[in-house]
Amino acid sequence: MDGSSEAKGGAGFREPPYLKNHEGGLRRVGVEIEFGSVSARDAADQVRSLFGGEIEAEDEHRLHVRGTELGDFLSELDSQYVHRSGPARTPAIEDLQAKLRKILGDISSLVVPCEIVCPPVEIDRLPRLQDLVDALSGAGARGTSANLFYAFGFQLNPEIASRDAAYITAMLKAYLLMSDWLRAIIRLDITRQIIAFADPFPKDYTALVVDPAYWPDMAGLIDDYLSYNNTRNRELDLLPLFSWLDEGRVRERVQDIRIKARPTFHYRLPDANIGQSDWSLRLEWNRWCVVERLAADRERLDAMSKAFMANNSRIISENWAIRSTEWLLT
Length: 330
Fold this sequence. Notes:
Layout: E1 28-35, H1 40-51, E2 54-59, E3 62-66, E4 73-77, H2 91-108, E5 114-117, E6 121-122, H3 126-138, E7 154-158, H4 165-186, H5 190-195, H6 203-210, H7 218-228, E8 236-237, H8 239-245, H9 247-251, E9 266-267, H10 281-295, H11 298-313, H12 320-328
Antiparallel strand pairs: 1-5, 1-6, 1-7, 2-3, 3-4, 4-5, 8-9
Helix pairs in contact: 1-3, 4-10, 4-11, 4-12
């Protein structure tokens, strides 16, 4: 893996320790943003205004913005029930169903989030996606904290730097060690916790992985993950990555058609708090980089793992979220 810097993070965006992806190109990041108070069509207009391209409406609540300077975007109401599915029917039935879907979508938009799925962009272009977050906020989009019924998520999909099992294991170890700290500083909204969109990892799985002696081969890493986490509802969902690495092994254990194989870490923890002055894509990206930097420092990773295990063995353990801050200062 090449850790040299070929692109400088702009506008306060931190650089991860590895800028190159597993193929030698600049790593890319996919971003998914949920929000309320702005329609899918108005959000698509914001995308086109910033990045160009053409809007193609699949239906009233799902629009593609194709051919922008960054690639193709999707703006949609995040509900399967308001979009067309299944084989085409007679024109009269199609027209009736379209009208019903529009009505349902208009009603659902009061509590169901709109979502923009951004194309993977190179790390040095992340500030352009911050421009989109700012534009949506300026257009009136609001996030989780704006309404008791909102449970909106913000997802990052950073491309992997290597296919090596040791690299992926180190990333997983680092994430598990920093999970309590991330949850504490993010102050995850109670509605999202109740609905369980991004569950924490089981404690026995965490204990297995953070052990300094745990460095399995890829097959062992995937098998252990599937034994404890045969669900998409994890704050760091590795099913897309493991499906990309060994789809057959994953499909034998998890039959979920929503899993999309891709060489990324699917980070699902953060709330989407568009409209709040103290929240940004930049903030969540920089928090993720804390995990990447810990993973790249084997000596610090092992030392923190030992401290974690020692803390767990105490009759009265210390608050690990607070203890974790010590490792951010070393």
